[in-house]
């Protein structure tokens, strides 16, 4: 049974010294930046996001993060498991604290899944989340059932949408778009065998451009009427609420996030709460890693006995 056995495949990297309490951006690793949306919203801690192209694929991201994590955790990569249907699967890594003191599980361990590609659609992003939820029901070889932490957090793509929308809105009123509108009219004329004069092209393009600006102005007006500074601020507030709700729902489903944060360093969070950080270690509040069953609220004393599901020996 997966709950009994010796854990194999542990990485044997060198231990690295802890970062200072006020870990700086450069110390956390190359290519990391403070998420831009955090400067305009009250989402709490400011996560650090990799610069675009900093990691060419998931393997590079996993290598970078797991090398960091080896300071505090034993790392077992590419762990195999089984869905409740019997189908085989595997997850990127399972981590165990080198020093279990202070953790609130008898044998603390958790799984990590990495993803670098930006979701091509909203559905694709939620598909990754659904995969993580399914992983919490798997029986992992040598570990049993484990909580899953995503890296980077799935909410980062939700919160960054506001910046993307603001950029798109800015492009809608740019002179380049007016010229693009003219070129579209010229192509339309050639397609239907009509020779549009430049004066006609200019007038029609300007009408379309003004309509677009009018629509954007209306959105700005309604946003200010609702008490926001502008339409982008309203979009950010909406995305913030969506992200907060998603965070709490995923936490109830035993899915959290592994991310670096400004001043705090790398951290495990679930339902918006800290479980561990490289600056402070495991939190004193008795939050446990073990996946919840239904709406249960177990205490550390209610941990499973050795040999049961959710227990591992290593």
Largest sheet: 9 strands, mixed
Strand order of the largest sheet: 6-3-4-5-7-8-9-10-11
Look at the structure and give the mean pLDDT: 73
Tally of discrete structural domains: 2
Region (Disordered): 294-314
Descriptive account of the structure:
This protein has 314 residues and is of the alpha+beta class. The chain has two domains: 32-157 and 243-302, no CATH class; 161-235. It is 35% helix and 18% strand. The protein has six helices and eleven strands. The chain has helices at residues 58-69, 122-135, 155-172, 175-191, 198-225, 231-252; strands at residues 32-34, 48-50, 73-82, 88-97, 110-114, 139-140, 148-151, 255-261, 265-270, 273-277, 281-282. A nine-stranded mixed β-sheet has the order 6-3-4-5-7-8-9-10-11. The protein has a two-stranded antiparallel ribbon with strand order 1-2. The longest helix has 28 residues, at 198-225. The chain is elongated. The model is unreliable at 1-10, 12-28, 34-42 and 299-314 (pLDDT under 50). Residues 294-314 are annotated as: Disordered.
């Amino acid at each position: 049974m997966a709950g009994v056995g010796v854990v194999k495949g542990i990485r044997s990297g060198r231990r690295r010294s802890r970062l200072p309490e006020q870990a700086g951006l450069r110390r956390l690793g190359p290519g990391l930046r403070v998420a831009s949306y955090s400067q305009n919203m009250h989402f709490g801690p400011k996560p650090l996001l990799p610069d675009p192209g900093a990691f060419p694929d998931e393997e590079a991201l996993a290598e970078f993060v797991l090398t960091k994590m080896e300071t505090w955790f034993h790392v077992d990569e590419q762990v195999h498991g089984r869905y409740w249907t019997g189908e085989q699967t595997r997850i990127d890594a399972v981590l165990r604290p080198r020093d279990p003191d202070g953790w609130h599980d008898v044998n603390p361990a958790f799984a990590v899944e990495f993803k670098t590609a930006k979701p091509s659609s909203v559905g694709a992003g939620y598909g990754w989340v659904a995969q993580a939820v399914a992983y919490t029901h798997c029986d992992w070889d040598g570990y049993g059932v484990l909580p899953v932490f995503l890296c980077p957090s799935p909410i980062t793509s939700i919160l960054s949408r506001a910046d993307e929308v603001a950029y798109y809105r800015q492009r809608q009123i740019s002179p380049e778009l007016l010229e693009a509108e003219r070129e579209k009219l010229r192509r339309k004329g050639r397609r239907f065998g009509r020779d549009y004069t430049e004066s006609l092209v200019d007038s029609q393009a300007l009408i379309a451009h003004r309509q677009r600006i009018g629509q954007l102005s209306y959105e700005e007006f309604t946003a200010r009427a609702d008490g926001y500074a502008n339409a982008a601020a309203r979009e950010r507030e909406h995305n913030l609420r969506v992200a907060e709700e998603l965070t709490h729902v995923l936490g109830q489903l035993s899915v959290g996030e592994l991310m670096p944060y400004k001043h705090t360093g790398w951290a495990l969070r679930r339902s918006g709460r800290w479980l561990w950080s490289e600056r402070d270690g495991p939190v004193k509040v008795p939050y446990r890693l073990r996946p919840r069953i239904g709406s249960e609220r177990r205490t550390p004393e209610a941990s499973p006995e050795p040999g049961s599901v959710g227990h591992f020996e290593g």
